[in-house]
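Section 3.1: Structural characterization of target chains.
Under the original work plan, the team committed to producing a structural model for every single-chain target entering the pipeline before any wet-lab resources were allocated. The record below documents one such target. The sequence was received from the expression subgroup and is listed exactly as submitted; it comprises 223 residues.
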Amino acid sequence: MKDVIRNHPRPSAELLERFSDQQPATLHESMGKRGALANDIRPAWFGTCVCGSALTVHCRPGDNIMLHKAVSLAQPGDVLVVSADGFTEAGMWGEIITVAAIEKGIRGIVTDGGVRDTMPIYKLGFPMYARGFSMKGTTKATGGTINQPIVIGGVQVKPGDIVVGDNDGVVVMPLEEAETILAAAIAREQNEASVMDRIRAGESTMDILGFQATYDRLGLSED
């Protein structure tokens, strides 16, 4: 297999639009509690949301030449999903490459590495999810891969998988399961809306969700 793959299956713009209104937590639950990246991969600031098609990158720790190459190959709607082997002692993503990414229509970056220039990037409104933050510079001397499967935050990500993130974190859905997951998420939202209507009408979650029977089996004493 080549180190750099230029073309791969991508979700349609229409499918991404349908996912853009979904909460990552709902999607995670709807796919059997799968797909959630480790919770130390966090948004750089409160209020961040991202939805797009995974463009996967593997960079060597402290080196970001593959990120610059990935940006040059990206298509509108892509989200860079980047494994740096968990290395956070370098800012592999900064302001200049962010401007380049915005010009290419890239929707955000998700990495288990470190990022920097968070203040100017905040002003640019470019979503960043990272494991760490570091002002330290990087080298451009070591190869890696683009658009091959990677593992990040305990989840395998393939190019073209759907990536959705908000304040709670990031979930990744296999492209081949996308329609099934979306249908399950919509059904879950509708059921939850019904539950909340019943709560507002005075019912208890213990009764609506059947938790009272579970609680009773615990054999706890009450005053």
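The chain is about 35% helix and 20% strand.
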